[in-house]
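Quick look at the format.
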Amino acid sequence: MSNFYCRYCGSQSSSASSLTSSACSKNPNGKYHALYEGTEKSRYFCKYCGESSPSISSLTYSNCNRNSNGKFHVPYVGNEKSKYFCKYCGQSSPSISSLTYSPCSKNSEGKFHVPYRGGETSRYKCKFCGTESPTISSLTYSNCNKNPKGKFHIPAV
């Protein structure tokens, strides 16, 4: 049997529908639990600062000073990697904490680098317009006229 977790508070349920129909006090975008779309792991990392914890509920218990969309830690959905790339500019780093430590001038939703949750590939495609490029940094170098929140291309997962 699979477990379903809320990405904002770590509440657990055996059913996605029962989880997402219950109230969540930590969801900055609404009043209900939001489904965590990653896999179960031995450690969870905050996508905004790299803080780690053995459970989503313990990770999301404390505040994150780098989360511009809310005030708590939010688990990174992707798998652990030897190298992480910023989804807004393509800068790379060996850990989430070192990547998210410095500001990103292309992040239209916050101030710092945010890890791309997909894996390394030979081509990256913009999630808004479909433009392709061999690297995240070359994709995000130019403007995207279909990006509603900013002006640069953002890679699809």
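Next, a different chain entirely:
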Amino acid sequence: MKSSESGNARLVASGIPSYLDYTRTVIQGLGFEIDPVKFSEGLKSIGVIPILHEGRAIACLNVGSHDGPITQHSRISLETLASLVANSIARIQADGIVAAALREKETLLKEVHHRVKNNLQLILSLINLQANSKDEANIHEFCNDLRNRIQSMAAVHEQLYRSDNFADVEFGPTIEAIIASLSQTYPEKARRVEFQTRIEPIALSITQAIPCALIANELVTNALKYAFINGMVGCVISLTLRTTNGEAVLEIFDNGVGLPNNVELNGAKTLGLTIVSLLTRQISGRLDIGRNGGTRFTITFTPH
């Protein structure tokens, strides 16, 4: 017997087992096409038993009987068989989901291990840079600077773990966390400053987000320490992240006294500018300094 779309498919879609006398009138009335060979073989009845998965028919068992109507005992057996097949399909699908989840977990664990290793190496490099700086004589300031750098890295990871995507980070909350941390470290200076942030919703990979967070931490720290002197009022530090022609632009500005004219990026002698230059190169970016009305650092890079 061959089934048309309006016959067998209709019975399967109903989700209810159907048992029918195999007569030309009944079969044609349901929309089936008669297979002359099987009809001549003397089939007396047929059964269509849907295989259900999550309440939906996904297949069916088609059976025929030469001996007359399909008995109640046979019906129970057939429906039990359909249920077992459905359970097997569900188990196979569940096993596939579990296997995929395990593979994803293994990949994530490898990625976490790789990131932790890289970040520990970065922390070690920062410690070595600061320990070798001839300008560092105050151990308290040394520890504060190091703590803030580590906290800026932790802010990126916090946003990463809060998101549904373990690959990209929204940078706005990271900037807010850095400002909050530095305001606690330098409360007297921070109270005199108006922080302005304009962060577009740009997703950065963690390999870019951490260097950008460290750059922002370094430049805001320097502005708080050195930009505003002699009771200056109207102090502003602004942080901007925007896109221009497919490139990301991170800009940190303060309206303080400005950098001395003899301070240049190439061969910078201060630890802060050295770190900023190194991190800019790490993200394959360009670093520019503007001195009009204060100090403006502009880092341009391609986001990925």
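The CA atoms of residues 29 and 295 lie 87 Å apart.

See the schema section for token definitions.
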